[in-house]
Amino acid sequence: MANTPNTQDAVQMERRILRLLCQNSAAREKLTDALRRHPWRDLAHRVTFEIVCGALQLSVEQLRRVLPRRLTNAGFPDFPLEDLFLPVELSLQEVEIFLREVQPPAAS
Fold it and tell me: What is the CA radius of gyration of the chain?
């Protein structure tokens, strides 16, 4: 059985994943389907994910401009999003490993 990250570690990883998605449109396209099935630990992260992945056509600059308004409209006016556009050090492989670790066991 793999070591499943605790809730705090999972929330921190979710934040790093959001940073990757906000800054890398190729990552958005590649990870959207897998992350839709992810059991997000933080509701604001889930909402941010839905907004970001619903804007696949937007550039990083465009996303940076519209994300605050869309989060406010979704009920998260105070969501700290400044760090979502700071340099990210996370690979797609690290995300895929994390998603396997948090995947609930398959029913027998």
Answer: 14
